[in-house]
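Hi R.,

Here's the chain you asked about this morning:
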Amino acid sequence: MEKLLVKHIVERAATIFPHREIVARTGNNGRHRYTYADYYRRILKLGGALDKIGVEVGDGVGVLGWNSYQHLEIDYAAVCMGAIYQGLNFRVGVDSLVYMSNLAQNKVLFVEQAFLPLAEQMVAAGADSIEHFVLIADDPAAVNTSLTPLLEYEQLINSAPESYDFPDSVDENDPVAVCFTGGTTGRPKGCPYSNRFLVLRALTRQSAQSMGPYSGRDVFFITPPMFHGHAFNLPMDAFIVGAKMVIPGPHPDGNVFGQLISQEKVSRFMANPIMGKMLIQAVDEHGYDLSSIRHSGFGGDSVPNEMSDYFRKLGAYRSGGHGMAESLADHTAGFFDDLPEYGQEAAFELMQNNAGLPLVGCWTRVIGEDGQPVPQDGETMGEMQLKGWHVIPEYFRDPENSAKLFTDDGWLCTGDMGVHNPDNSYSFRTRSKDMIKSGGEWIPAQLLEQTVNDYANVREACVIGVAHPEFGERPLALITLHEATAADIENGLRQHLLEKLEKWMVPEFLVIDEIEKTTVGKFNKLALREQYKSHYQGS
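And here is the predicted structure, written out as tokens:
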């Protein structure tokens, strides 16, 4: 039986869909266009070049760069030759970058020109496994850097042997990519993805019960950063069906998204809620045409009802369920609208409440404080645990976290709180650290965030638990506004919350200019709890 190897999918795409287009925005807001066949020829050359300079199976290949056509080439050349691709999150601190690079034993580091100072800082701080640096720049001759030995990207490809084949000898279970979680406490945790993992994940995503069904007429927008969850495996999805790909390039914002969607007729927009808000704001200001979008989905944080309603009106909304880097996005999904027993409104309500059914090859359970599965009543909360075909079996070269966060029988302890519903779906409620215990009762922060976000003129809402002298903890809602002032909404928002929540759950709220976020766009609740820890003193 043939191994499950990514190289088979990429080779097939270049053979069956040679003329399909890949479009990448470049630094001058131009466009780089080429075909699947062109792309495959270049990654073969790149694989040969990496082999020539000594990169072997299992060696780390790091990248410091935005989503670009070069980044897409490096990613799949490394994976297909059996090296370990590592997109480095350039938004984290230098110490974390050094830890991640050294753990992967990166032998080569590809660096876009804008990130040369960061790469130099990494080397100075102890990134000591790198034997070659490869520069990606429009004008390499004008670049001045202390990195050595320094190669240039196009010269590296041009100097490669004319004949190279990706090896068949790679073990399908060995890691070929690693993504580090963007947690706010402790060191980053690496999620290793093997060929088998990536292929199975891409195949299950084709289903209408996950992100599919996909079509060769689709236009995929590769918006998630390529350092984040292997860009959710989206390029693999496109390769399988022969869909056009659009890559946003450096410094993407709402206007970049709007321009590319309208100009390239993007049909699939997958993003986090922050990206969705940026796009909606840009459309409101400049009127970009989003009519080509037929599927949108959001992950990584709670989705405001206002946003889901916006994309639902476009006829392009699908969300709900639960996912994480450890399962390369979703492992339960809100595909209720494809099942005859659910009406459209009921299906949408379930998606709004983060409900999802397990995907094929995925198993989910909710475990209570007593160590037993919770009742299937849709109310009793416990920790969501998972395992399956595309759930990592351990953390990357990290026995400490692997022992701590996997059960003896192989279930991943997610730290996320949820419920098991009577219809066998599961609903994510909140992160375990976001449960606020007030007066002996538990309050899910995410429920409060969704309720506050539903109020007109609230742009963003983040709820944290803050120490309280009488109740132990009380929720505090930090909010930013669209247009209204704090005085305009003081009474209205409080009344809205009283109508939707039990009185004892209603948080106090503060209107601020901006809510601090982590490097992957989530609210930085660790920093916010520290900043506002004295808010209720003297209450």
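One quick note: Residues 36-52 form the longest helix (17 residues).

Cheers,
M.
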